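Re: [help] complex structure
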Amino acid sequence: MPATSATHVKALIFDVFGTVVDWRTSLIDDFTAYTARRDLQGDWTGLVDAWRQAYVPSMDEVRKNPQLPFVMLDDLHRRSLERLVREFGIEGLTDDDLDYMVTGWHRLKPWPDVVSGLTRLKTKYILSPLSNGNVGLLTRMAKNAGLPWDLVMGGDLFGHYKPDPETYLGAARLLNLSPGEVMMVAAHNNDLAAAQALGLKTAFVARPTEYGPLQKLDFEATGDWTVVASDFGGIADQMGC
Amino acid sequence: MPATSATHVKALIFDVFGTVVDWRTSLIDDFTAYTARRDLQGDWTGLVDAWRQAYVPSMDEVRKNPQLPFVMLDDLHRRSLERLVREFGIEGLTDDDLDYMVTGWHRLKPWPDVVSGLTRLKTKYILSPLSNGNVGLLTRMAKNAGLPWDLVMGGDLFGHYKPDPETYLGAARLLNLSPGEVMMVAAHNNDLAAAQALGLKTAFVARPTEYGPLQKLDFEATGDWTVVASDFGGIADQMGC
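Output below.
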């Protein structure tokens, strides 16, 4: 049986970058191996960290200009990358190389507990990402990584990025559920705070190495979340799976 | 290897009612068993056939009034059912009974070749429904029936019903694919004609018992479709899976 406060939950929706997949190690390893084959040099660790730091500001620009057409994350990633490649002085990258790097986000590897935890949770609950990634990105990631989602929800479905309310409430609406029947799962306290304020249930899982030596936040739960666990197996335990 | 004309296909999107699931037998069997337990009487075959006949007109009302808010299929089903229950003179149904019957569309059974065919196709292609059903309906159907979709696309994602172009083109856009990289699979020639006119590839599979004795159309392919097969296994064969 799930914890009493989670009794009415019918669906779990997941933050993806950092919560489900280890973007930092995945991208650094991917680019290091790829560019070794291409005989290119670059500070891939520095570039990946800077790329991720460009993530929130790039989405904020979309969020603060709702009169402009929505720009999906693949395209924001491409814009940031083109700037960073110049800033890092990386020479010799072709257009195909840049495409390969942008689709690195489609090839991210899950944390070791993820596939087994999701597989257990799927027996009782509807499972979907609710990510700022676009549906095409998330679908390819799921196929590459074997993530057993029931459906795929990304920011482009709603024309909004988290933490805009349209994303959390749009997810509940698409599932024909009330917000209290949906649990947001994230390694980021601010994502859960936004979901909780709209009536969703919440589950926190710590990913203390997400940002490597740059990690400053989210070593532990800082809110009154419905479930707090050390990994996805722990969420499955507490949700009665 | 797939047929030459299907070489560039990356995703297959499926009509659902009739193509993937046998709505008629599923609903008649479901309601017969359910109402026997409730000691209720009704012409369930007649009601199910009439319910399906109300399907296209009910969507056409939405399609022809784009200034009004989109109404998802679960709600159209409920409206039609309430009218038909009166017309068929069925007495004693509670609100819970009507809910049960509307969610009968969430419990439809697949044709026998479907799960094995999709499982083969999933190894090489992105698979999604592109149905006039809403995402919540399609997600629950997939969990009940074990349909291994990669993602779930329903009319409510686009605020349109097929054959509106927004559905076919919206599916390609969400997948970051060009129309020619997407193949529409259906047992209905008119669905394929609408998809083909927009540049999608097409696959026809005959479901000659879909409408039981009322079947008048779609005994065979009537257009120049990319693939014509007798079941989903045949599509997998021709698509190189």
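The interface with chain A takes residues 74, 126, 134-140, 142-143, 149-152, 156-157, 174-177 of chain B (CB under 8 Å).
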